[in-house]
Structure formats: C-alpha cells, structure tokens
Amino acid sequence: MLNRTVLAATLSALSLVSLPVLADDASDLKKLRAEVDALRKAYESRVGELESRLKQAETKQAATPAATAAATPAAAPASADKAARQSGDTAFNPAVSLILSGTYANLQKDPEGYRIKGFVPGGEIGPGSRGFSLGESELGLSANVDRLFYGQANIALSSENEVGVEEAFIQTTSLPAGLKLKAGRYFSGIGYLNEQHAHTWDFVDAPLAYQAFLGGQFGQDGVQLKWLAPSNTFIELGAEAGRGSNFPGSDRSRNSSGAQSLFGHVGGDIGASHSWRAGLAWLRANPSAREHSDIDLAGSEVTNTFSGSSRLWVADFIWKWAPNGDARRTSFKLQGEYFRRKEVGELVYDKDGTASADRYRSQQSGAYAQAVWQFLPAWRTGYRYDWLDSGKVDYTGNSSNLANPDYKPRKHSVMVDWSPSEFSRVRLQFANDRSRENQPDRQVFLQYQMSLGAHGAHGF
C-alpha cells in the first residue's frame, strides 16, 4: 500500500509541474490528466492482482504441512528434523564414482602358462584371460572428514566376483610447511605409473618392468609422508614405511616395518607449451619365505622360497607438449622408466621335496619407453617398447638344480583409442610379447572404460 501511495503522489506532482507548460492548451492538459488517471488505475489493478496471488500461495503453503501432519502425525517430527538437517548432511556426503571396464583378448599363447623368463613371478602378471571378460571395476568414495583430514577408499570388483580393498586411507589437509601425511592402504609413490589407477594408463596392461619387479603395481598398508617445496619449480620428496606384504615383499607376521621407500620428483614448465617431470625412487623390502614357482633343470615344476633383502631403484621421466597448454585438440607425451633390482639372501629349492637351502644373489634390470600422440580432439595413438635383462643370478649350491637365466624378454605394443568425453574411452591394442623364450605371443585387445559419478582430477 505504501508503494501505491508514493506512486500516486509522484504522478500528482508531475501533473502539477506540467500545468504552467500546458496552461495555454486546455485541451492537451485535459488529455494528459486522463492518461495519468488511466495509468494510476492500471497500476492499482495490477498490484491488487499480484497481492491476491501472493495471498493464495501463502495459504496453500501453510495448508500442505498441516494436511501431511494430520495424515501421518508420527512421521511429521522426523520429516521436519530431516529437512532441518538436509543442508548440513549434504555438505559431508562423500563423492562417489564407479569405473566400469571390459576387455576382449585374442591371445596366440595360452595365458595359463605365462611366465617372464628369468624373473621370479609375483603379484598379478600376464595378459589376462582369452575372449570376453569383465575387467576390474572400481568403486570410489572420497570426502573431507573435517578441517584436518581427507578420506578416500577404492573398492576393486574383480571379474572373478571377488571384492578387494585397493586403497583406503586418510590424509592430512592442513599440516604446515608443505607437509602431507597419509595412513592406511595406498599405492606407493615410487616411479611414475605406480601411484596411478589402471584406468588412467595409456595401454591396456602394465609395462613388463612393472610386472617383473613389482608384480604389476606396488601397494601396501602403512604411512607416507610427503613434502612439497615452496618454490616455482615443482619439488616433492617422500618417505614410506609399511607392512610390505605385497611382492617383492611377503607377509612376515612381525611388528617391524616390512618395506620402506624414499622418492623425489622435480618438474616444471618450459614456455607455454611444454612441461616435464623427473624422479628417483628407492624401495627396500624384506621378504620372508616368499614363494614362487619355477622350472628346474629336469623340466619339473617346483616351488622355491626366498628370504632376505630386495632393493629396487627406479628412475622416471615424462615430457608433455600441448600448443599453448591447450590439450583439447592435439598433444604429445613421451614417457619412460628404468628399474634395477638387487636381491640377496637364502633360497630354498623345492621346499616340498628336496628342500635344499643355499645362498642366493641376483641383479636384474628393465625399462620401458612410450609415446602417445593425440592427433584429433577425441583420438590418440601410442607405441610402447618394453625390455628386461635377466642379468646375473647366482644360485651357489643350487646351481645343479636351477638354470642361470640368460634371456632378455621384449614386448612391442601399439594402441589407438577414442574418448568421446572425459568419462568414456574405447581402446584397440596390438602387442607382440616375447616374455617366454621361443614362444612369441601375438595379442589383440579391445577394451572399454567408463566413469560414472564424481571423479577427481588425475595427477600430472
């Protein structure tokens, strides 16, 4: 009502001010006053209509909760409490993501007999199953716990209907001086690929070096401390200590740490189009009675055990190019890692039969190099070359039972993939795998990977 009064007064004032101007023309003055009156009436009519609609809406809103409460009186307090808490609860709900993956594999050699000649097998290695198979699906949950901690869990659902905890850790968010502490189960920060989930890899499978030296990927239960330097150049240092039950370690059932690692990474930008990162890492594991299958000189399959120390050094480098830093249309990536491992301890040959124990020493190495080119906005192609050197292996007294390996496994892989969005990818890969001596395995993979829900950004 106040606005209506103000408008009326304003219009009246305007009409009075206009009188001297139009005094000489009584006809025009009368016409103007008529228009002002018409405008005032139209305005009052519109305001009245809006006030009526507002009153009806308020009446309807007040009646709805009353009717609901009368119909279900017992539920009304719970509903009101839920509504009061809804906004607060939503802020703490974890982000949920699901990665779906599937593969068709055409393998020339039977994957059941897969071995990397001259290397102790461990973990999940090999090309997988022939034909169609459901890949490993990954369910992820992550959120800030409070102002001090962040939590994340990744549940792996295998094609064999097995459920495993891939990662489950807490991480600090507010430590001073660039420090960050992680505790729980996590992928180690050694190397470049190890810390990444498989759905972010550029090829269907892990490089041979990862399979031979880390059993595919090294994760453990423990603690990790990282320090990020306050500088324009990216400098990151890290240390880890954990249970070390995964290959190259083993479950020792002791209170002390079974595996420790140190790593450092440096990187930066060169102009607007180039970026790089390089790193060095060291991993020490202390396996106890770590079992592995082997073929002795008589051609029999035996089970051996190793106890001692395993030391692994890793050097990694990656260089990326995108015009002016924009990788939406075209980009290029060059990546490589070098591994060198030394193991010293005691080997028990044929633990269930002969059980011959003697000193063991080995020194082996391997690497891979790959290049990936994005030639169209949704299309990429890449090539990877893997090589291993079985190096020097000394079985001492067991040399009469086990052959000293003298073979250098190799593998060539070529892929092309199509990603219509950041949430979906279809990949075709061809490989010539010479992990087994005199048994080249020609492999063809067709893979899909789909991401549902909220998924955090990937690292560099």
UniProtKB/TrEMBL annotation:
Keyword presence, Signal: yes
InterPro entries: Porin_dom_sf
Chain coiled-coil ranges: none
Biased composition (Low complexity): 62-81
Cleavable signal peptide: 1-23
Keyword Signal attached: yes
Keywords for this protein: Receptor, Signal
Region (Disordered): 54-86
Annotated protein name in UniProt: TonB-dependent receptor
Organism encoding this protein: Viridibacterium curvum
